[in-house]
Specification:
Largest sheet of chain A: 5 strands, mixed
Order of helices and strands of chain C: HHEEHHHHHHHHHHHH
CATH architecture of the largest domain in chain A: 3-Layer(aba) Sandwich
Strand content of chain A: 5-15%
Structural class of chain A: alpha/beta
CATH class of one domain in chain C: Mainly Alpha
Shape of chain A: globular
Order of helices and strands of chain A: HHEHEHEHEHHEEEHHEHHEHEEEHHHEHH
Radius of gyration of chain C: 24 Å
Number of helices of chain A: 17
CATH superfamily of the largest domain in chain A: Periplasmic binding protein-like II
Radius of gyration of chain A: 26 Å
Distance between the termini of chain C: 35 Å
CATH topology of the largest domain in chain A: D-Maltodextrin-Binding Protein, domain 2
Distance between the termini of chain A: 64 Å
Number of helices of chain C: 14
Chains: A alpha/beta (about 450), B mainly alpha (about 280), C mainly alpha (about 300)
Strand order of the largest sheet of chain C: 1-2
Strand order of the largest sheet of chain A: 2-1-3-12-4
Number of domains of chain A: 2
Strand content of chain C: under 5%
Helix content of chain A: 40-55%
Oligomer: heterotrimer
CATH topology of one domain in chain C: MetI-like fold
Number of strands of chain C: 2
Largest interface: B-C, 94 and 102 residues
Number of strands of chain A: 13
CATH superfamily of one domain in chain C: MetI-like
Chain lengths: ~450, ~280, ~300
């Protein structure tokens, strides 16, 4: 400590020479402080080399390794296009978006930006990302899941491309179902999936002093609209008009309100926690789980006696399931959009998508990639894939998506904690329409 | 006599018993965090309703292994310490000078400067973070060490701490220096600074802790693994599915340990330092 | 410049030069990185500004402010901020004082207890908030506090999801986290009270309670004022806890002004509008600081 104070004193004196006379020796040391503070900015490109920077959220160790390996390979094979990826650390999707928002204010975006599926239209409508149609012609897009193309298209143009998809299914604890005398729901025939009434009824039967009937809340942000949104589709509701310009009369329709009230039955009656710990199901503290494809690998590693079935279907048989994953887009700030496009074509080819999807244990967005991936012909993975091809629906596409997502999640949480469903959804509609009116009305 | 002895023993018993009980309750959340970091994932929530939840039954280092596998701990530590070091330099040197001027020099604009410091002290960074970023972008400082550190080199709370400490230094001491022909700046560095170790230690700790714990600004202004600081690293485990609490607890524990060690070593200075700033108000 | 200064005599002249030299580096930094961003904020508050469209900013005079004064959420946020401040300041200060009284003696091992009480303060609020979200979990099977309540026969409390308890839960946690710092200041204040005063009181036959009222508290007046001031200033800034634990909910129960500024500016992209809220917030905070400063000076 003493030394610290001494150094500080010397440094301070150095800068004070003008005022206090005759202290010559200190100047040198005073300089050392600033040396470390300037860091080399982006390395200057050699002539003819296009530099491409990618931002994507920090991911699991396997995906981080995939990035390192693939970028090394690309950079070796393509000396004229040098790619660099920056992992963005974030606690949730919203934090990552804040980072993008901030960079947008001053033209500091990277060339390639990974964005969450439903945000594609927001960024596209605001001119932050540029169309990718020339890199992914219609012919090539046929290989992708319909929900992927749907989510990544805005105003008739492709603005992003996702390597993976996601889906949500109903996981159940076999021991708990046995105890309650409930037969296992099917994982091969959607006609024998649990309906809404069965889901609610079973959740009630499954709730005991030691565990709750189900876990339906993923987080307090984007997870709400992602996981619960498709109940609204099944209930015959729609979040916004087809062109994404209006929410009044859609999000607050009768069907919508009924769906919200149905979901609240789980929370209100204590069949599900409003604020579950993230691995409640894994810990045996919930009998069932509306879980994602990303839960599979974890569950396989555990000793839990679990099974999987379809995302619950409406009582009239109408089925939908959540979809969507992070997608790559090229930004307006990119100085080398063509180089970025070329890299994306390569990164999103059938082989690379297959290895990427395998690393993250998520469903691939390309149909042809499944030929190169193991384990997707049966069990939970096959079910996820089937849902994607048959019942998957993308989240609403609208430039005001961020307002919709934030307010919808707030509204649902409020409903779960006792607010009137109609009032809350009216409020979402009002805020959405106001936002659209203010910024996007043509 | 006997009565007094009994009273003393009784006082001791109350003192130790009371403090041990309250102290344990007080740190129980942190103890639980520590205990959970040594548990296999499935044990964490398995016995919450008994005190055994504070003891890992199947002790494992797996969570820590995972953290170390995942993170370049050395780079992160280096980044964080560099960031803190530069910020502290500004704060301790420039901030203390300002604090001294406010406390002891009768110069023009002193009153208004003090008011500005106090008013800015209550300004939350979150409310102006976007304009701050815009300014950094205009300076071309985004994703640089300058952008990360310089805006935080001056901290009004530290200035105020220095100010409140220096005010308590007797004027006679300064007058005596003047009589000896020492100018105010010289007086500060050769007379005032050496007797003010405690306040420097206090500001050092407070600033160290708050920079160590800073998340929002490093997150927005820097990009990429090479520049990652501690709190950004913590986010990885909170943010990437599937979430495992054992690893979260391990990384939270690791992120707190350096602070606790530093505090224990500097405690002596620290209490005195706060003493000297606090009571004069 | 020189002519003006020389009137005041040599000493002040020296002080003036030294004052400028010693304060200008710090002042320049403050102006450059705190005051300029504040000026930007005030400036943008007169514009319609979708945050990701810096190319499309429209001057709208006082529209944001007109909207603000009609915005029910703004008043809710204001009310929540005031509520938090009014409750947390006394709670935290009293807790800190009690702790300080418990560890102000010179007994062996007292440093250990001080460290225990101080330790939450060293841990970051982000970490604390993540940890307490888990501790506060509403289900007795997964939340430590509710597991404890259940084991002593009480009903579990839905701490963070009930509008009635959410803010109080945050207050409790914040007081727990912050009290250690104020405790240190109180310890210092207690040590500064001359021992003779206690001896004199003992001679007069005062018990511990009387000593507390007639010796300790009067001796701590300045310390208490200082502690109240810094706690107040911290409390007005409340952001991290609702950001991590509740996202401002449930039913806006924990939406504070700073959180609302963040939510409007970042989350919903209404940057111009967020700036107008921030400007009003600045005015409140600056006024408050000046008032507090005046009060502490007059005594």
């Amino acid at each position: 400590m003493k030394r610290v104070f001494k150094t500080l004193g010397v440094l301070a004196l150095g800068s004070m020479l003008a005022a206090c006379g005759n202290n010559a020796g200190a100047t040198k040391q005073a300089d050392t402080g600033s040396e470390g503070s300037t860091q080399a900015s982006e390395s200057k490109s050699a002539e003819g080399v296009a530099n491409v920077t990618i931002w994507s959220p920090t991911d699991t160790a396997a995906i981080e390794a995939w990035w390192t390996e693939k970028i090394d390979q690309w950079n070796k094979e393509n000396p004229d296009i040098q790619v660099k990826r920056e992992a963005i650390d974030r606690a949730d999707a919203y934090a990552y978006e804040n980072k993008i928002t901030t960079a947008t204010t001053s033209g500091n975006l990277p060339d390639i930006l990974y964005v969450d599926g439903p945000m594609v239209s927001y960024y596209a409508a605001n001119g932050i990302t540029v169309p990718l149609d020339s890199y992914f012609p219609a012919d090539d897009l046929k290989d992708f899941m319909p929900s992927t193309v749907q989510a990544d298209t805005y105003d008739g143009k492709l603005y992003a491309i996702a390597p993976t998809e996601s889906s949500v299914a109903l996981f159940y604890n076999k021991d708990y179902l046995d105890k309650a005398g409930i037969p296992y729901p099917s994982d091969t025939d959607i006609k024998q999936a649990w309906t809404w009434s069965q889901f609610l009824d079973n959740a009630k039967k499954l709730t005991t002093a030691d565990y709750v009937g189900t876990n339906i809340i993923m987080d307090k942000g984007e997870g709400i609209i992602y996981a619960l949104g498709q109940f609204f589709t099944e209930g015959g509701a729609q979040f916004v008009s087809d062109d994404g310009s209006k929410a009044d009369g859609y999000i607050n329709s009768d069907a919508s309100v009924k769906t919200a009230e149905y979901l609240n039955e789980f929370i209100k009656n204590g069949y599900a926690n409003l604020d579950p710990v993230k691995d409640e199901f894994l810990n045996g503290k919930a009998a069932t789980l509306l879980g994602g494809s990303w839960n599979i690998a974890d569950l396989e590693k555990s000793n839990l006696n679990w099974g999987v079935s379809y995302f619950p279907v409406a009582d009239d048989g109408k089925a939908a399931s959540p979809t969507g994953d992070w997608a790559a887009a090229i930004t307006k700030d990119s100085k080398n959009p063509d180089a970025a496009g070329k890299f994306l074509q390569w990164a999103m080819n059938s082989d690379n998508i297959a290895s990427y999807a395998s690393a993250v244990a998520k469903p691939a967005s390309r149909t042809s990639s499944y030929d190169k991936m193991e384990g997707w012909d049966s069990g939970a993975r096959a079910l996820m894939k089937w849902q994607l091809q048959n019942t998957g629906v993308s989240r609403p596409r609208t430039p005001s998506y961020s307002v919709l997502s934030t307010d919808f999640s707030t509204a649902m949480l409020n409903i779960f904690s006792g607010s009137n469903a109609k009032d809350e959804l009216d409020n979402v509609a009002k805020n959405f329409d106001e936002n659209y009116e203010m910024y996007y009305k043509k | 006599m006997n009565n007094k002895k009994i009273n003393k023993v009784l006082g001791n018993v109350i003192f130790y018993l009371g403090n041990i009980i309250v102290g344990l309750i007080f740190v129980s959340p942190l103890l639980w965090m520590l205990a959970s970091s040594f548990k296999p994932e499935l044990e964490i929530f398995s016995n919450l309703n008994s005190l055994t939840t504070f003891i890992p039954a199947h002790f494992t280092l797996q969570n820590y292994v995972e953290v170390f596998q995942r993170l370049k701990v050395f780079t992160i530590l280096k980044n964080t310490l560099l960031y803190i070091g530069i910020v502290l330099l500004g704060d301790l040197v420039l901030g203390s000078m300002f604090g001294y001027a406010l406390a002891k020099l009768k110069y023009r604009f002193r009153g208004i400067s003090l008011t500005i410091v106090i008013a800015l002290m209550s300004m939350p960074v979150e409310a102006i973070i976007l304009p701050m970023y815009i300014e950094m972008a205009q300076l071309g400082w985004v994703n640089t060490m300058m952008g990360l550190t310089i805006p935080f080199m001056m901290n009004c709370f530290s200035i105020y701490m220095f100010y409140s400490y220096f005010i308590s230094i007797p004027d006679e001491l300064i007058e005596a220096a003047k009589v000896d022909g020492c100018g105010p700046v010289r007086t500060y560095f050769s007379i005032v600074m050496p007797i003010s170790k405690t306040v420097f230690a206090t500001v050092f700790i407070l600033d160290f802790v708050s920079r160590w714990n800073d998340f929002m600004w490093p997150f927005l202004i820097t990009t990429g693994e090479e520049k990652r600081t501690v709190q950004l690293a913590v986010q990885i485990f909170v943010g990437v599915s599937p979430i495992h609490y054992g690893v979260i607890m391990a990384v939270l524990t690791l992120a707190s340990i350096p602070m606790i060690i530093m505090y224990i070593f500097m405690q002596k200075f620290y209490v005195e330092g706060i003493a000297s700033t606090g009571i004069k108000g | 410049m020189e002519a003006k200064l020389s009137k005041k005599g040599k000493r002040e002249y020296g002080d003036n030069i030294a004052g400028f030299i010693m304060s200008s580096p710090a002042l320049i930094l403050l102006i450059a990185f705190l005051i300029i961003p504040i000026i930007y904020t005030v400036y943008y508050s007169f514009f319609t500004y979708q945050v990701v469209r810096p190319d499309n900013i429209k001057f709208n005079a006082f529209n944001n402010y007109v909207k603000l004064f009609k915005d029910a959420n703004f008043y809710v946020a204001l009310k929540n901020t005031i509520y938090f401040t009014v409750i947390v300041v006394p709670v935290q200060c009293i807790l800190a004082l009690i702790l300080a009284l418990m560890v102000s003696s010179k007994k062996k091992g007292v440093a250990v207890f001080r460290t225990l009480y101080y330790s939450p303060q060293i841990t970051s609020m982000v970490i604390i908030a993540v940890l307490w979200t888990i501790l506060y979990n509403s289900n007795a099977n997964t939340g430590l506090i509710n597991a404890f309540l259940k084991s002593i026969g009480l009903q579990p409390i839905d701490f963070l999801n009930n509008p009635k308890t959410a803010m109080n839960s945050i207050i409790f946690m914040s007081a727990w986290q912050g009290a250690g710092y104020q405790m240190m200041i109180f310890i210092a204040g207690l040590n500064a009270i001359p021992g003779e005063q206690y001896e004199a009181a003992s001679v007069d036959g005062a018990d511990w309670f009387a000593k507390l009222i007639y010796v300790t508290l009067p001796g701590l007046v300045n310390t208490i004022k200082y502690v109240l001031m810094i706690t107040l200033i911290q409390a007005m800034k409340l952001f991290t806890q609702p950001y991590i634990m509740t996202k401002g909910g449930p039913r806006n129960a924990t939406k504070t002004l700073v959180f609302y500024i963040y939510e409007q500016g970042f989350q919903k992209g209404n940057f111009g509008y967020a700036c107008s809220i921030a400007t009003v917030f600045f005015i409140i905070v600056v006024t408050l600081s000046i008032v507090v400063k005046r009060i502490s000076r007059t005594n």
